[in-house]
Design a protein that fits this description.
alpha/beta, Nucleotidyltransferase, domain 5, six-stranded mixed beta sheet, 39% helix, binds adenosine-5'-diphosphate
């Protein structure tokens, strides 16, 4: 099947057009500044390795979708003759609350439930709703499927997702662990399970999705046993600009000392912390590496920011191995996980207690490709597996549409 994968943001829309029979991406692109002056589309036809950028008015997501279809069917930059060749549309949705534990075909009921998810991720949900409605307007006949970042984590048990707060907060407000990056954790853990010589039900895998946002997940028997992100994507390990887990008592303390409102302290924790906050250099791991190499003024703090992340990843791996009663494999994925060999080496050094025998030479060459970075004798396999959330979305969409 040929599936259009859509990732709608509030003023942007990313897309990929994927053939799920061959896993080939025919085209991809990005519409930017939707609803703002100077909106533009950047479209790439990957079969011919050509691309183009056009400044074109897009007052809403429906206009953007019409432009995407125009380019997919364009004589020069297109990859299909007409719209009939689009079998269905698959949407990435950031938060499905506790309503969605798997991908689902769009219906009025689904749309009504998605509206309720605004509480958990207001900006993202609003953007997804605009994307979905835009597709309904531009391509009313096409089936649409929603694929949720939170769905995989719905397989967690209450011991892992209930916070030790008054239980009524869970009942009244839905305060619990939801996790994030679920589509990525699901994909890389499934790829890893295929490489292990045992039935999926018996596998114990720890997946480290390390990007601008980072999360670590314990996947036992194909189900999530625990994950580092929580009620929001602020929890877990240190990130580009997010603080990750901190003592919750720090929040009211800092609010009082710095005279901050809830919104302001939220901004500090989400946008001014993490790598950026600790190093004072940047939110990007590459910039920290450069600062360390050049020995610039903030190089010690840049190193500290990296060391904090390494320390925290080690703690998550150790604790997840503990709750799963062992671990067969550790997987690194996303921008940092796939490309930052030095960080992977720091994480996996001194892990002999767990049965990790790290292959430094293999690790040094592993960059953006699937690769084993542990020795053949290692009790725990360690892999780099590039994530592919779009492929999961396309495959889920094709499977649901095929069954109609
Ligand atoms: P997002 O979470 O926004 O999808 P990414 O997964 O691309 O972001 O991760 C961004 C992080 O990954 C940055 O800290 C960046 O330094 C790092 N990164 C991305 N690509 C590379 C690369 N080719 N080499 C080294 N680091 C990279």
């Amino acid at each position: 099947m040929k599936i259009l994968v859509v990732n709608a943001g509030s003023s942007s829309l990313k897309y990929q057009f994927i053939d799920t029979d061959t896993n080939v991406v025919f085209a991809k692109g990005l519409c930017e500044r939707i609803g703002i002056e100077g909106s533009l589309i950047n479209h790439k036809q990957l079969l011919k390795s050509i691309g183009t950028t056009e400044t074109a008015p897009m007052k809403n997501h429906a206009d953007a979708m019409k432009l995407v279809v125009k380019y997919l069917t364009d004589a020069e930059y297109g990859c299909i003759a007409d719209m009939n060749e689009i079998d269905a549309i698959g949407h990435r949705v950031v938060h499905g609350g506790a309503y969605f534990s798997e991908s689902i075909l769009l219906s009025d009921d689904v749309l009504a439930k998605l509206e309720l998810c605004r509480d958990f991720a207001p900006l993202h949900t609003e953007a997804h709703l605009m994307g979905i409605k835009g597709c309904l307007e531009a391509m009313p006949e096409k089936p649409q499927v929603l694929v949720f970042d939170t769905a995989f984590h719905q397989s967690m048990a209450p011991d892992a997702y209930i916070y030790a707060l008054p239980y009524e907060y869970y009942e009244k407000y839905g305060i619990r662990r939801y996790g994030a990056h679920g589509t990525s954790h699901r994909y890389v853990s499934a790829e890893m399970a295929k490489l292990l010589d045992k039935p999926v039900e018996e596998t114990k895998i720890i997946t480290c999705h390390l990007g601008n946002g980072s999360s670590i997940t314990a996947v036992k028997g194909g189900k999530v046993m625990d994950t580092s992100m929580g009620f929001t994507p602020l929890a877990g390990v240190e990130m580009g600009t997010r603080c990750g887990d901190i003592d919750p008592a720090i929040v009211p303390y800092v609010m009082e000392k710095e005279n901050l409102t809830p919104d302001q302290v939220n901004t500090v924790m989400n946008k001014k912390s993490g790598f950026l906050g600790v190093s004072g250099v940047s939110s990007d791991a590459r910039d920290l590496d450069t600062a360390i190499k050049e020995g610039s003024a903030n190089s010690e703090r840049a190193q500290l920011a990296i060391n904090i992340l390494v320390h925290q990843i080690k703690k998550f791996i150790g604790s997840y191995a503990a709750v799963m009663n062992g671990v067969d494999a550790i997987v690194f994925t996303a921008g940092i996980g796939e490309n930052n060999a030095a960080l992977r080496e720091l994480v996996c050094s001194n892990m002999e207690y767990l049965g990790v025998e790290f292959d430094k030479a293999a690790n040094a060459t592993a960059r953006g490709v699937m690769m084993k970075i542990s020795t053949d004798n290692s009790k725990v396999a360690v892999y780099v597996i590039p994530t592919n959330e779009e492929l999961v979305i396309a495959k889920d969409t094709a499977a649901i549409v095929a069954a109609l």
